Amino acid sequence: MENVLIIGASGSIGSIVRKNLLESSDSHLTLFVRNTDRLGEIDDERETVIAGDATKFDDVDSAVENQDVVFIGVSGDLPEVAQNVVTSMDNNGVERVILISSMGIYNEVNSDSNCDNIPSVLVPYRQAADIVEQSDLDSTVIRPSWFDDFPDTNYQLTFKGEAFVGRNVSRTSVADLVTRVIHEPTLYENESLGISRA
Asked: What is d(CA 128, CA 130) in angstroms, rounded to the nearest whole number?
């Protein structure tokens, strides 16, 4: 049984990852959220709930202890969250991390061969990805296209250094990819993946 920390467990991706793991694994889930009311019914045998702020190191550090995999699926001050998670994982000897970032952080959508020439709105997503990738952790960065609520899992992947292909992707698809990586921790290890509808 793996211990999986979901930072942003009540979010649009985290909530689906949570559901997937409860249905397809025997993993113990630690649900890290700001507002516990948004989680709904809790499985007391398989889930632990932590109310916290991922921009506060002490909150993150208490959650990371004894985890096997950490999934970061939040918005907001993503670089600070990423740095807190990386530092805490190093402190606690936890090695596997999965981060949701955004398409376009390497200028891979409309490439002009300058990966630093990106819109300001994407800078925090790029900074968070850099923090995770430049750590000594086993990381997977996922760069989704625009989310939609279609229930399909029809998706395609592109790798860092490749042009991003496609537009839009379902939240279900992104969560499916996250779930696959959690199930098989060496899958897409130390890769940055663009994901869009096939």
From this structure: 5
- Distance, CA of 52 to CA of 56 (rounded, Å): 8
Please, what is the Cα angle at 120 between 119 and 121, to 5 degrees?
90
The total domain count for the chain is 1
State the number of CA atoms in the 13 A half-sphere of 76 facing the CB: 14
Residue 96 bridge partners (DSSP): 69, 138
State the pTM of this model: 0.96
Residues 6+ apart with CB under 8 A from 30: 3, 4, 5, 6, 47, 48, 49, 50, 63, 67
Q: How many CB atoms lie within 10 A of CB 111?
A: 14
CATH number of the domain at 193, please: 3.40.50.720
Strands 155-159 and 191-197, bridge-based pairing: antiparallel
Task: Supply the DSSP symbol for 113.
Answer: S
Q: Cα 50 from chain centroid?
A: 18
Residue range 161-193, pLDDT digits in tens: 999 999 899 999 999 999 999 999 999 999 999
The amino acid that residue 6 corresponds to is I
Q: Which residue segment(s) compose the domain that 72 sits in?
A: 3-197
Both tokens of residue 93?
């000897």
Q: Where are the alpha helices (DSSP H) in 98-195?
A: 123-133, 171-183
